[in-house]
Amino acid sequence: MKKLCRSNDVYTDLTIIIINIFIIITHIDIKLQGQSVESIFILPVQRIPRYRLLLEQLLKYTPTDHSEYDVVKRALEKISDMAMFSNEAIRARENKTKIMEIMLSINPLSRVDLLDDQDRRFIKEGILSRQCR
């Protein structure tokens, strides 16, 4: 592996570490054997909504005068912020992917860089029809 990617040692080392972690995890946890790398790496992202639901229920049943009430409330606020940040990042990535698909569908000779403007957003997909007045 190191011979293949000599030009970027940091990337190579990180890749080797990730592959080794993947191999160790799949050998330790029998439930993960046969799953793809993507499905294993998405597990922490899927936990955020579960933690939020858990903390909402915990806060609901924790008396307001309990010593840990404020701690649970702050934890819920933090995990909610994390969920919002994660969702926004996913939407931004999906938006960029869609714009890239559109850009690549344009003839290379007349293609323009649609990703040059960071504020560009994909709004709607559908058939474009001409309307005469």
Q: State the shape.
A: flat
CA-based gyration radius: 23 Å
| Element string (H = helix, E = strand) | HHHH
Give the terminus-to-terminus CA distance.
64 Å
Which residue ranges are poorly predicted, with pLDDT under 50 across at least 5 consecutive positions?
1-8
Q: How does the major sheet shape up?
A: none
| Mean residue pLDDT | 77
List the total number of helices.
4
> In percent terms, what proportion of residues is strand?
under 5%
Fraction of residues in H or I helices: 55-70%
Give me the count of strands: 0
**Count of the domains:** 2
Write up this protein:
By secondary structure, this protein is mainly alpha-helical. Helices cover 61% and strands 0% of the residues. The chain has four helices and no strands. It has helices spanning 9-28, 37-41, 43-61, 69-105. The chain is flat and about 65 Å long. The relative contact order is 0.05. Residues 1-8 have low confidence and may be disordered.
Brief digest:
This protein is about 60% helix and about 0% strand. It is mainly α and about 130 residues long.
Name some characteristics of this structure:
4 helices, 61% helix, mainly alpha, 133 residues, 0% strand, flat
Lay out the secondary structure:
Layout: H1 9-28, H2 37-41, H3 43-61, H4 69-105
